[in-house]
């Protein structure tokens, strides 16, 4: 039997998303929900990469429950290596409740820190998965969870660097998990090490305090030769490297879910 080692590894939260069926239904009102759907920014990224026929592995934690089994089935269906899944005793699979307002803004209620996905730690990172890996993808939403999650991300980063691989980072600022000023400090060592950065315009502005985008990009404390792919919504994206900028226009698509769409745009 041929064993295919993953080329892309992502570390972080696997959770279910339970959402309002249409905009204008805030979470503080009674109403219907749709779901559960397999979710979590790193998990969504892993599935998106696998759909591009990249051998992909996910490292994270779920509960020994129905939602955890939903995640297992999704990874299996998408051919994501989930051998790095952990099952911390006594913790349920994480969940996120999501609502959209009429302008497209999102409201979240997270059950993550005290769920299974919040129990990931450095000693749970399986070293063997990194043999031959080319890329590690990290998300700020994982880094913001707690000290153990940050340590797990740092451990994974050390392993991929030792392998001679590269790091991609989505800042994925989530004020519900950590205020922006604290988030910048937590992200700093990961920003400095990342070979590919995938922020939005509002994220580079928030992280640098600069309102003008080109100045914000230049002020970001990133690795000198890093590629920065700035997500600009319907406008498209702009790619910066070595002081040069390339603008790529957007194109019209039928949006299914803005949360998932934002994450898979990193592919």
Automatic annotation (TrEMBL):
**Keyword GTP-binding recorded:** no
Organism field: marine sediment metagenome
The signal peptide, as residue positions, is none
Q: What is this protein called?
A: Carbohydrate kinase PfkB domain-containing protein
Q: Where is the Carbohydrate kinase PfkB domain?
A: 5-262
The regions listed as transmembrane in this protein's record are none
Q: Which InterPro entries match?
A: PfkB_Carbo_kinase, PfkB_dom, Ribokinase-like
User: What Gene3D superfamilies does the annotation carry?
Assistant: 3.40.1190.20
What is the organism lineage in this UniProt record?
unclassified sequences, metagenomes, ecological metagenomes
One Pfam match, given by its short name, reads PfkB
Q: Which Gene Ontology terms cover its molecular function?
A: ATP binding; kinase activity
**Protein family membership:** Belongs to the carbohydrate kinase PfkB family.
List keywords of the entry alphabetically.
ATP-binding, Kinase, Nucleotide-binding, Transferase
Q: Does the keyword Signal apply?
A: no
